[in-house]
Amino acid sequence: MQKWIMSGLFFAACAFAVVLMFTLPGKAEVAEENKPTMPEVQLDAAGAEAIVKANCITCHGDQLQGGVGPSLQQEGGKHDVGEIFTIVTKGRGQMPSFKDKLAPEEIANVAMWLAEKK
């Protein structure tokens, strides 16, 4: 009787391992998920400023001088546009992710606008 139970458990474990092998994401999918792709957009400075005023000044200040969050007045000198896009999309440290609050095109516009601040 014990042999039947043990062989049944072994078969279940093997089946579970096979299912996991085909359903877990691979390295490529994980890498793509970790680095969001920035869409191609034209810089709209007025639109970016409006988005920043509506979403960012609470933590970064009305002149981007910093407060709860760091100063963004010279953000372009610290990070390139892709890095800024990833930070705003995914969040970092105490900064929340904005991927559910802003469209990727809006985030890209803000990233391009901030990248010019050096």
UniProtKB/TrEMBL annotation:
Matches recorded under SUPFAM superfamilies: Cytochrome c
PTM text: Binds 1 heme c group covalently per subunit.
Entry-linked PROSITE patterns: CYTC
Single GO MF descriptor: electron transfer activity
Cellular component, GO, one term: membrane
Gene3D superfamilies assigned to the protein according to its UniProt record, in alphabetical order: Cytochrome c-like domain
UniProt binding sites for heme c: 56, 59-60, 95
Residue span, Cytochrome c domain: 43-118
Keywords of this entry: Electron transport, Heme, Iron, Metal-binding, Transport
InterPro entries on file: Cyt_c-like_dom, Cyt_c-like_dom_sf, Cyt_c_BACSU-c550-type, Cyt_C_IC, Cytochrome_c550/c551-like
Protein name: Cytochrome C
Organism: Paenibacillus graminis
